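Input.
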Amino acid sequence: MVEHRPIRRSAAGIIVAILAVVVLAADQFVKYLTVENLPLHEVVPVIGEFFQLYYIRNSGAAFSLGSEVTWIFTIALTVVAAIIVWKAFGLQSRLWAIVLGCLLGGVLGNLTDRLFREPGFAVGHVVDMISMPWMMPAIFNVADIFIVCGMISVALLVILGIRFDGTREKDHVESEALESETAESGISEAEATEKGN
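Output.
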């Protein structure tokens, strides 16, 4: 997972923006189809119990937690989106651009619901429709998938030491160690020269 060379910041920003728009559009399109075609609170089997559609409006987070304080999730999503946009301006890494673009799209997908869906601005209910009861009891949506995968990818990039400029942390450590050895070697040679004189 080594990147050969950094890309221009403008190119990284474009990658983030394009992916965010694509993910946001896909999420909102699926939600539109859900609202227009699926019955509310009724299971629609697609592949038995392995994959089902179940249209709900979620005022809280996962498992409907915090349903009485919807506005908190709106603030949290706004802060996360702002941080991603801020970080995007300094990116020179393709991997980080892809991950943050997908993550931003997912965040914006659910934030759009919070801002513009009923029952009102900043307290809107998120449209969920994907159910896989064999795996988890929660109902989720396309945005949730990209948020979860994005967070896992962020953790992996951090663990692997991939920096925002596309280089790896260990390369910087090795470079600093080499510079330190070179400096120490230079000092030793200078001391030897002085003693010889």
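The first strand starts at residue 43 and ends at 47.
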